[in-house]
Amino acid sequence: MIPKDFLTLFDGLSRSHGRVEVFRDFLDVFLYVLSCGYCREDYTRVCSMYDEQEIRVFMQMVQTVADHSEGFSDVLGDIFMECISHGHNGQFFTPQHVSDLMAEVTCSGIRPGQSVYDPTCGSGRMLLSAVRSLNRTDPNGRIFCYGSDIDLTCVKMTAINMLMNSIPGEVAWMNTLTMEHWRSYRTGLMRIGNFWLPTLKMLGAGETELVGRVKETVKRSGHTAGAQLQLSFDF
Known about the structure:
Shape: globular
Order of helices and strands: HHHHHHEHEHEEEHE
Largest sheet: 6 strands, mixed
Number of strands: 6
């Protein structure tokens, strides 16, 4: 469900800059905030295109989405489908309740430290559902979540969702069928006192742990790269 206050802010900026452009730039601002300034280059580009008041609106949008994303909710995916993709290129993401059911069935017995992979991750809601499933029995447990998508916007949404929920792993911008890799966002956890804080590192073309693990798993299973399950464990 999309917060009404977010739509008011989003529509206000979109009248001057266009919906697709505003959403793309919003994700870059969000990554900058969550990475504590690490993704500065994209944020600097955004600042050169918007005035100070508009940047403040972006910050309000970030806070609104963060406030409504508790409990592993995928607000970004809902915004993307309703306001941006409209189903173009088949970009309708799995409904949240269906993702939760699939994770409950597939994640039975999964333990902290194991890994889960979605090769067409969209906004990452299947990964969120997998972590939510573990969270019911082990609130402090975390699995490593790996995702990949050919759409960079989707990759950024997944990275943001993982950072907001302190989920370690890697999200790769790549062609899952050909294994061509362009960029990755690697998330980690840093312990400060009694809290785990998320960290982010950007990796360039070919700098990826994910692709190597996928290739090895596919080789062991005897499948082709395009025949992988949507949600795969223990790879």
